[in-house]
Amino acid sequence: MKLKVIPAGDGDCFLCEFNNDGIPYRILIDGGVESTFAEQLRPLFDNPAFEIDLVIVTHVDDDHIAGIIALLKDPTASKRIKSIWFNGYKHFPALTSGQTFGVEQGDTLSKLIEGLQIPWNKPFGGGAVALNPDGSPQLVSLGANTTVTIVSPGTPELLRLKTRWEKEWKRIALRDAAKAAEAAAKTAAKAARGTRQTFAPLDIDELADPALYTKDKSVTNASSIAFLLEADGKSIFFSADAIPETVCSAWEKGANAPREVDIFKVSHHGSLKNTNAQLLSLFPSTRYVISTSGESHDHPDRESVARIIKHSRTSPKIYFNFYNKHTSVWADPDVSNHQHIAEHGNGHDFVEINL
Length: 355
Description:
alpha/beta; 6-stranded mixed β-sheet; 11 helices; globular
């Protein structure tokens, strides 16, 4: 199995390649920001034999969905997508009407999928990619030795997104004002974070203090499709931007023991609100992947990286696909005290991990 961590701005974009019943198989998980397609994905399709067996769009945030929209608008690339998993408005439970309004990008992607007639959520009978009705993980077989275990979202998360989706549709006229307010908030947050000491030695125990963890309240993040992929005798936990509470609850409802994984893709680009000790204990690993340029949200948060180091069974290897002021500190032995191994990408080329 090979995982390619693709530079995608502040977002996520992963290409996973493995043998499925002896046949090469590719899964593309998210597409990053819009420019990710032209800069990173489009050149792959210059090879006339290149195709993607499954595209998984974990949720509707721009830094995950925009590159997929660009892909499906491309007349060449779109024809080489065999199937897709994505929760659009029509998949939300307890629908009260047949209208298809919603978050613009989610609706745009839904229309593209339907127009191209790509098989959509086929293993789920065309329904939502989600937990079982009782909140336990849903197991999907892609082949004799390939499984995907869905650990997020559940019905409550989809219902909350449905409400948010409808509100966003009604507020499209106010979009520019909302974006301006959001930009101002991000600027203020950056200014506040700028006061943090950058080059002093990091206290891992202090940063990993459970008291510093607070739950992510984002409705879209909570709706993320998170899953455990097992193939070729290897495993990768793809957490998207999911919240630990949903994933941990589902795993425990399935009466599952902690599952050691070969790679743990860290949730929400290393945000301190999306990784906690319980989640790390359920999916222990020695390899962790954090995908972000850090430009817009100052990710990854040091608290998340400290939790990874503190709760790993052995000295972990942490892969960053960008080298910047937020990730470079973890390569400085005077700061991070060699409690882990940090590997950085250059922000242009894929980071490849071979299992």
